[in-house]
């Protein structure tokens, strides 16, 4: 038995749709600039490849759980995304075989401290303070890929019942197999990795008390409320 200097934290995990088992979370990778309209609304060039960044695994927030309003921001944004849960690991994965590595799919919200992210961009600094903060990755239950892979379908988000984001997963610039193949050239992917695959246009400000609902066709709807500071 390993003798730690203090009790290590419990491994972060996510719910699995239709099962009492939990999905253990290893790392969270995120893709930026993966819907052309969102690239344009953020002032970028849609022809550029997406960028990758990470969030800590314990940033995940379960469905129907309040999300604390984060510190040091006055410009918290929602970003609804298709999330890929990896069931197998590997590096230099071929695009043609990438879906063999997928355990399942879920709806996720890449919460962003937009003011801090923009300040980092202007200075050429990493995005960690804008993207990788506590409670920044709400996630619905993961639907196993044995029920079908996700390559198309409506993706949407509402705030207090008002439509904010709506598109189709088929509009992603880079498909799920292409994302997995490219990411695996940069990192050795592991079972338990989550990949947030990018958000469509319509991102916007969240305030304390706001109720958010978002999802992808065929997956569990993600519901969270922003708590007071």
Strand order of the largest sheet: 4-3-15-8-9-12
Question: Which parts are unreliable, with pLDDT below 50 for 5 consecutive residues or more?
Answer: none
The averaged pLDDT comes out at 95
Fraction in helix: 10-25%
Rounded radius of gyration (Å): 17 Å
State the total count of DSSP E strands. 18
H/E element sequence: EEEHEEEEEEEHHEEEEHEEEE
Gross morphology is globular
Percentage of β-strand residues: 25-35%
State the end-to-end distance.
41 Å
Major beta sheet summary: 6 strands, mixed
Class from secondary-structure proportions: alpha+beta
Could you walk me through the main structural features you see in this protein, from its secondary elements to its overall organization?
- It is a single chain.
- This protein is of the alpha+beta class and 229 residues long.
- It is built from four helices and 18 strands.
- The strands form five sheets. A six-stranded mixed sheet has the order 4-3-15-8-9-12, covered by helices on one side.
- It starts with 12 loop residues before the first strand and ends with a strand.
């Amino acid at each position: 038995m390993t003798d730690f200097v203090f009790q290590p934290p419990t491994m972060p995990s996510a719910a699995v749709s239709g099962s009492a088992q939990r999905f253990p979370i290893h790392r969270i990778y995120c893709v930026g600039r993966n819907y052309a309209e969102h690239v344009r609304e953020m002032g970028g060039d849609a022809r550029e490849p997406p960028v990758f960044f990470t969030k800590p695994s314990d940033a995940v927030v379960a469905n129907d759980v309040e999300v604390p309003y984060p510190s040091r921001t006055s410009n918290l944004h929602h970003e609804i995304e298709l999330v890929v849960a990896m069931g197998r690991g590997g590096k230099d994965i071929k695009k043609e075989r990438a879906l063999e590595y997928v355990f399942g799919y879920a709806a996720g919200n890449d919460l962003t401290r937009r003011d801090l992210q923009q300040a980092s961009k202007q200075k050429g600094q990493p995005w960690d303070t804008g993207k990788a903060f506590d409670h920044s990755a709400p996630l619905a239950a993961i639907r196993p890929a044995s029920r079908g892979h996700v390559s198309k379908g409506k993706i949407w988000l509402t705030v207090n019942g008002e439509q904010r984001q709506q598109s189709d997963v088929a509009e992603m610039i880079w498909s799920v197999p292409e994302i997995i193949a490219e990411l695996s050239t940069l990192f050795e992917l592991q079972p338990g990795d989550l990949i947030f695959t990018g958000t469509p246009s319509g991102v916007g400000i969240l305030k304390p008390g706001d109720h958010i609902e978002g999802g992808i066709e065929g997956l569990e709807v993600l519901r969270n409320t922003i708590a007071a500071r």
